[in-house]
Write a structure and sequence with these properties.
With 152 residues, this protein is α/β, with parallel strands linked by helices. It has one domain: Flavodoxin domain (Rossmann fold, 3-Layer(aba) Sandwich). It is 36% helix and 21% strand. It has five helices and five strands, in the order E-H-E-H-E-H-E-H-E-H. The protein has a five-stranded parallel sheet with strand order 2-1-3-4-5, with helices on both faces. Strand 1 (3-8), helix 1 and strand 2 (34-39) form a beta-alpha-beta unit. Helix 1 (14-29) crosses helix 5 (136-149). This is Putative NrdI-like protein. GO terms for molecular function: FMN binding.
Length: 152
């Protein structure tokens, strides 16, 4: 049985909603799949330690930045740092197939900037992005990319 692993952090619920709907969509297409979704916010809230992840995963990250315009100021990540800490833990970064960013297009240059920063920091690709909670088209498009990564 193939396991898709999704590691994410969700503060407003948008990213959690997207990961849940993406998981349901993939399971409908591939009932033989197992999906492991790890919410880093829950790990931190429950005081559980980070761990070395057992296989390949895709990360999902909303953008929360401190003010500014995302070009020459306002590109400092806030609130979502625990996901970066988890990816940096032991050998986890080498198992990340890529990251999917989310955000609000109204923030122009800041849109999905944190995902781009993680891509540079850890050396994995930005696979795609979606706005807010994402639409069905986003789910289908991102599902196809993830299927390809896992060889489906």
């Amino acid at each position: 049985m193939t396991t898709f692993r999704f590691v994410y952090i969700s503060l407003s619920g948008n990213t959690a909603s997207f990961v849940k709907r993406l998981s349901q969509y993939l399971l409908e297409k591939h009932p033989e799949l197992e999906i492991e979704a790890i919410d880093i916010k829950d790990l931190v809230k429950e005081g559980r330690p980070f761990f070395a992840i057992s296989g390949a995963f895709v990360a999902f990250l909303p953008t929360y930045l401190e003010g500014g315009n995302g070009i020459d100021n306002g590109d400092q990540e806030i609130l979502t740092n625990p996901l970066g800490d988890f990816i940096a833990f032991e050998d986890n970064a080498s198992k990340c197939l890529g990251i999917v960013g989310s955000g609000n297009r109204n923030f122009n240059n800041q849109y999905c900037l944190t995902a781009k920063q993680y891509s540079q920091r850890f050396g994995f690709p930005v696979l795609d992005d979606f706005e807010m909670r994402g639409m069905l088209g986003d789910i289908k498009r991102i599902a196809e990319k993830i299927e390809n990564l896992y060889g489906f």
